[in-house]
Amino acid sequence: MGALLVCIATAPVLAQAVEQQYGKVRYAAGRKVFQTGVFEPRLLAEIPNGATAPFLVMSGMGCDECDINVSIYIHSPAQGPMAEGERAERYAYPGQYRHYMTDELLELVRMFTGQCTEEGKPGVLWMHRIKLDSGGWRSVAFAVQIADGKLVERIDPAYEAVLRATRQRVAGGLCREIRGRQFKTEP
Known about the structure:
- The protein is of the alpha+beta class and 187 residues long.
- It has 2 domains: 1-93, no CATH class; 94-187, no CATH class.
- The protein contains 2 helices and 13 strands, in the order H-E-E-E-E-E-E-E-E-E-E-E-H-E-E.
- Strands 7, 8, 9, 10, 11, 12 and 13 form a 7-stranded mixed sheet that branches.
- A hairpin with a 2-residue loop joins strand 3 and strand 4 (52-61).
- It starts with a helix and ends with a strand.
């Protein structure tokens, strides 16, 4: 009988521990709230989406108490609920990524939001430098923009030209860089 009482007494505690508590972000100058599908979300930028809700550029984690890095998520409340946790599409958070065992630098990521692309459309731009097995580096620009209410991704191999143009847009106040962090690669 004593064991049964312990089980009954701890059942509500176990149920609370299993329940996922995803965070919320405020947008539209704090007037609106969106329930995300990620842990510890932080709004970094809003991308206009015509007459509907903007696309929210957020940082967050797809799981709680795991080895996953902080990532970037882009979602519009107009699309309905966000996919939860690790099922949500995620992008690299800016910063330096080092191998989790050897500490070798493997990737450098810069990220910009605003009117950062050549076309001047609002979006998100990543500048990736990835270490190759040969020891050299591959540089590539990756952009996400909005077209007809949907995210459109594109890769631009002209890294140096894109970086020069982006620096000019930052200097002109058209886009801004998101400060990077130090990361270990995910095991």
